[in-house]
Write a structure and sequence with these properties.
Chain lengths: 327, 343
């Protein structure tokens, strides 16, 4: 209330002749000689809108954080992050709001491809450069796609597993959410490689929904069902830890190789301690998105070349874990 | 159902006849036994050649697994039984679990190597947090005159929001912190998991409270006919607040074992747990309209779900088929009870 009265007063003051000029500072306020500069700066400061599909995920939170850090180093860019709350409709509304705000660049990490395609297309058609992160949309109407390949990560995990098991053993695979694309690709890539080793078989395969507690339950059942388990392949680190806890409770964790995906901090720490074996970093691409966004905002035209930047994965075993922290 | 069958009183009287009552009361337990026989003996004889995996069901470790896996849902379901018996519902149990779990985990994380006194304080505060929010549910229902569905739906969002605010969305991990002062809560005591002991103890205490105390009779009275209970001098408001508070406390207890068992507190944990808890209560024969049923049924209901998860799990059944079977068996369990009731 008090604030709004002050505001009205100040606006009123601006209309009084004589007070208009910046040379006459009002009511003992320190004179601001360069009154135009902040206004001018805020106009040249370009707004980047980032439509994140959800905040309820450590990997996504880290993605936001890394993007904020990258933007802080870039002068003249202001970052606004919207939380899609894991609902397509909310994320579409977020993108529409960014268009109304008049963002100079839209970064979007879609919750799902198909439902978000038209919203992203609309923004692109309105002349806003669009960087798509992590999950693609079903259209060519974007400026750049930055993401990692789950298929490739699955293959890398398979190669490591085959090497570690020396071509022989029975594996428990703990899948993510059934039907989700990352789950399918992380499984497919792994099986492509494992199929080349007749001595290795996936003896047990059940979903753990990318969460620790369900994965622990899956592993408890697997330990009950199978007498000899040589390795665990979990579609993310959180589930790898869940499987480890179950195996440890049964006193069988020392006989097993544990391989996960993501590069989560706790998993990296456990790899460093020799409790787990390896994880494969799934990069989030926020740094690359900001870097690329800066180029576009600086007036460089979008490159005519490939519109896709595929980020490589990094394998973290005990050696790499010494310098790598994870998120 | 009484509206469909005007002669509801007759069925009500029929239940009072001893054999009918016995059937009705033991229906969930009969269901559990027949389920175990069907899924172990019959399955092994007729179906197992097709399936490569046949994990052994009757081992101490496996039975321990079932209890361990079900104890958190079970604790929530016991709390839910109180609420449903009073003709209410509590949708906030999963959020309360997450809330209590993250506040506990942050306190453990802050001083991981402290002694027993600190551990007790952490546990007390964790329990108090969930209990307070549970009481909040009761206050909203009684003084706000909100329908339990709405009040607890709001609390579901509020508690979840608190959990995220508290951790700023981060998951709290206790995995590297040795010694873990709460580890015993998720550990095994001989062959018996501690969470299972807490679950069974809560069932035992609830049986006494519901059947041997005035509070128990008040809860049934309110659930059967609230206006009548009020007229006959039952302190309806007090009892209702107490019921939601008890449910909150049991959510806190579940959160303690959950946190200790997973070495973690995650603000997004416990999503959808309210449905599992309600399912256990209903399979156990407690009427969603209130006033009928009991916590013994809930124990059996939780075990039916647990046995089902376990047996399908240790046989490596296709997870999509598992969902279909689970849904079908829930329907079968409820139908079985209804038939008993009509006899």
């Amino acid at each position: 209330m008090r604030k709004s009265i002050l505001l009205v007063l100040f606006i009123g003051l601006a209309f009084i002749p004589g007070c208009k000029k910046p040379s006459a500072p009002a009511e003992g306020l320190p004179a601001k000689p360069a009154e135009e500069t902040p206004a001018a700066e805020s106009q040249t400061r370009k707004v980047v809108g980032f439509s994140q599909c959800t905040f309820e995920d450590p990997w996504r939170i880290n993605m936001n954080k890394e993007m904020e850090v990258a933007v802080a180093e870039a002068p003249g860019i202001k970052l606004v992050i919207a939380n899609g709350e894991n609902r397509n409709a909310k994320q579409i509304a977020d993108i529409e709001n960014f268009m109304v705000m008049g963002v100079s660049l839209l970064v979007v990490s879609p919750r799902e491809s198909a439902p978000l395609t038209s919203a992203v297309e609309k923004a692109f058609d309105a002349g806003i450069p669009v960087v798509v992160l992590d999950r693609k949309i079903d259209s060519e109407k974007y400026t750049m796609f930055i993401g990692a390949s789950n298929l490739e990560i699955g293959r890398e995990a398979g190669k490591y597993m085959a090497e570690k098991l020396k071509g022989k053993g029975s594996v428990v695979e703990i899948e993510g959410i059934l039907g989700a694309t990352p789950t399918q690709e992380r499984s497919q890539g792994f099986h492509e490689v494992i199929a080349q080793y007749p001595g290795i078989k996936v003896a047990y395969k059940q979903p753990g929904d990318y969460k620790r507690s369900p994965a622990r339950q899956v592993m408890e059942n697997a330990l009950q069902a199978i007498d000899k388990i040589d390795a665990v392949y979990a579609h993310n680190d959180e589930m790898m830890i869940g499987a480890y806890l179950a195996a440890k409770a049964a006193g069988r964790e020392k006989d097993m190789v544990f391989v996960g995906i993501d590069g989560q901090r706790e998993a990296v720490e456990m790899i460093r301690q020799g409790l787990l074996d390896a994880t494969f970093v799934y990069p989030n691409g926020s740094k690359e998105a900001v870097e690329y966004g800066r180029k576009i905002l600086a007036g460089n035209p979008a490159p005519a070349g490939p519109k896709t930047l595929q980020l490589p994965t990094t394998r973290i075993t005990r050696d790499e874990a010494l310098d790598y922290k994870g998120f | 159902m009484t509206s469909q069958f005007p002669a509801g009183n007759i069925f009500g009287m029929a239940r009072k006849l001893e054999p009918g009552k016995l059937f009705y009361k033991s229906a969930p337990a009969l269901g559990l036994v027949s389920l175990i026989i069907a899924l172990t003996v019959v399955w092994d004889f007729f179906l197992s050649p097709e399936l490569r995996i046949t994990g052994k069901f009757f081992t101490a470790r496996n039975l321990g697994n079932i209890f361990r896996q079900q104890s958190e849902y079970g604790l929530l379901a016991v709390g839910m039984t109180f609420v449903i018996l009073s003709a209410g519902i509590d949708l906030s149990v999963g959020s309360l679990l997450a809330f209590s779990s993250v506040i506990t985990a942050t306190m453990v994380e802050a001083h991981p190597s402290s002694g027993a006194a600190y551990a007790l304080m952490v546990i007390a505060l964790g329990l108090a947090g969930a209990t307070l929010l549970g009481a909040g549910n009761g206050l909203m229902v009684v003084f706000g005159r909100l329908q339990p569905f709405i009040a607890t739906l709001a609390m579901m969002s509020i508690a979840r929001g608190f959990a995220f605010l508290w951790t700023r969305g981060r998951g709290i991990d206790l995995i590297g912190d040795e010694p873990r002062i709460m580890e015993f809560l998720g550990a095994d005591f001989g062959p018996v998991p501690v969470p299972a002991i807490l679950f069974l103890a809560s069932v035992a205490v609830s049986l006494v409270v519901l059947h041997k105390t005035r509070l128990g009779r008040f809860i049934y009275a309110i659930g059967s006919n609230e206006p009548a209970a009020r007229l006959s001098g039952v302190p309806v408001d007090k009892v209702k607040i107490l019921v939601y508070t008890i449910c909150g406390f049991l959510c806190g207890l579940a959160a303690m074992t959950y946190t200790a068992r997973n070495y973690a507190g995650r603000p997004d944990d416990g999503l959808g747990f309210e449905l599992d808890a309600i399912a256990a209560v209903v399979i156990g024969g407690t009427n969603l309209m209130g006033g009928r049923g009991g916590v013994g049924g809930t124990l059996v209901g939780a075990l039916i779900i647990g046995v089902l998860n376990n047996v399908l799990g240790i046989r490596g059944v296709d997870p999509n088929l598992q969902r279909v079977l689970k849904g079908a068996i829930i329907v079968a369990a409820v139908l079985l009870q209804r038939q008993r009731k009509f006899r």
